[in-house]
Automatic annotation (TrEMBL):
Entry keyword set: Fatty acid biosynthesis, Fatty acid metabolism, Lipid biosynthesis, Lipid metabolism, Oxidoreductase
Any GO molecular function: enoyl-[acyl-carrier-protein] reductase (NADH) activity
InterPro entries registered for this protein in UniProt: Enoyl-ACP_Rdtase_NADH, NAD(P)-bd_dom_sf, SDR_fam
Name this polypeptide is given: enoyl-[acyl-carrier-protein] reductase (NADH)
Biological processes annotated in GO: fatty acid biosynthetic process
Species whose genome carries this gene: Helicobacter pylori
Family statement drawn from the similarity comment of this UniProt entry: Belongs to the short-chain dehydrogenases/reductases (SDR) family. FabI subfamily.
Keyword Metal-binding among record annotations: no
EC primary class: oxidoreductase
Gene3D superfamilies membership: NAD(P)-binding Rossmann-like Domain
Pathway the protein takes part in: Lipid metabolism; fatty acid biosynthesis
The keyword Nucleotide-binding is annotated on this UniProt entry: no
Enzyme Commission numbers on file: 1.3.1.9
One Pfam family recorded for the sequence: adh_short_C2
Amino acid sequence: MGFLKGKKGLIVGVANNKSIAYGIAQSCFNQGATLAFTYLNESLEKRVRPIAQELNSPYVYELDVSKEEHFKSLYNSVKKDLGSLDFIVHSVAFAPKEALEGSLLETSKSAFNTAMEISVYSLIELTNTLKPLLNNGASVLTLSYLGSTKYMAHYNVMGLAKAALE
């Protein structure tokens, strides 16, 4: 097996088999980890379930990070199914389309808040919710991007969100 044999992890934010979160999940699985996955909605569930099956995981949970009740449900499901976690991978980012167009200075307060809630605060809420299930020495990983430190065309508010994660 590998260095993650016997370890349990939650992968949040797999979009498809080309996403970075998928690559991370695949590597963790190849090293022996037991994995659980989340999906945002019914459309993404249809993509995530086959990935979970490919990686030998029956654990697939709905998680819309903008809905507090989803976090409570996730906690209960993970506790029941896995008991504890050794790592969490947070690969969640979103900004409304209008927040990625034009100038950053044209970003509405609503679009800014949405980008920060989904892309940044979700990591805090996820970690706080699952903290009682984290084993000693557990790890929490989130993903950033070069746009957090350098200008990237059409990245706008996401640059600020990624910088906030860092």
